[in-house]
Every structure is written in C-alpha cells, then in structure tokens.
C-alpha cells in the first residue's frame, strides 16, 4: 500500500521553480520521491531502495535547440549553456536534499544503517 510519509517544497528539476515534493512509501524498503511542479507541469518520479542513491551525473544535455532557427548560433549556444547551468544547479541542490531526506527516513525506521 502506498502512503505519503513526508512532503514539502523542493526545486523543480525542469524549470527550477518551487514545487511540491513527496516521499511515498511503496514497500518497507522502497521509497518513491515525487516532485509535482505547478509552474511547468513536471511530474518527476524517482525510486529509492535502502542503498544510498548514486548521484553525480547531471543529465542536463537531453535537449538541444531547434535547428534552422533565425537566432545566431552563438546566441543559441549561450542560451543553452545558461539553461544547462541552471538545471545542473537545481539537480545538485535537489540531490543533496533528497539523499539526506531519504537516508534520514530510512534510518529513522531502522532499515538503513
Ligand atoms: Zn517546473
């Protein structure tokens, strides 16, 4: 049975706006982290077992600018770099909070040493 065991505010991994997050307990050893962004509509889901998640890789380069744009390449590059940097900051910030929260919850319940 799924139950929400923690909720609060986090940054949206997509647009960096303040969004609602939840930890949902799926089973005794499995948590799901959800972010529901009211700004951009992102519904982010991530599942965690009792092993600390291996963060570090920031997937910020999964979108590229449209081709055949009238905007000069140099400006498009600058815009892209700016958004990638924002996304990397958001992901790092979120990951730190997520790791701490998830471990704390699991420790509190005596399921992770
Ligand atoms: Zn968003």
Structure description:
With 113 residues, the protein is α+β, with helices and mostly antiparallel strands. It has one domain (3-108). It contains one helix and four strands; from the N terminus they run ββββα. It is elongated. 15% of the residues are buried.
Précis, in short:
The chain has 113 residues and is an alpha+beta fold. The protein has one helix and four strands; from the N terminus they run E-E-E-E-H.
The secondary-structure element order is: EEEEH
The number of distinct β-strands equals: 4
Helix count from the secondary structure assignment? 1
Strand order of the largest sheet: 1-2-3-4
| Cα radius of gyration in angstroms | 17 Å
Instruction: Estimate nothing, just give the exact number of structural domains.
Output: 1
**Uncertain ranges:** 53-69
Overall, the morphology is elongated
Please state the structural category.
alpha+beta
- Hetero groups: zinc ion
Largest sheet: 4 strands, antiparallel
Determine the strand fraction and express it as a percent band.
25-35%
């Amino acid at each position: 049975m799924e139950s929400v065991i923690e909720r609060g505010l986090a940054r949206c991994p997509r647009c960096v706006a303040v969004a609602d997050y939840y930890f949902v307990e799926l089973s005794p050893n499995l948590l799901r982290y959800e972010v529901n962004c009211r700004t951009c509509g992102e519904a982010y889901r991530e599942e965690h077992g009792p092993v600390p998640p291996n963060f570090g890789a920031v997937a910020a380069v999964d979108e590229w600018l449209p081709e055949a744009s009238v905007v000069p390449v140099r400006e498009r590059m600058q815009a892209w770099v700016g958004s990638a940097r924002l996304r990397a900051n958001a992901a790092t910030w979120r990951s730190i909070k997520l790791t701490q929260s998830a471990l704390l919850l699991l420790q509190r319940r005596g399921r992770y040493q």
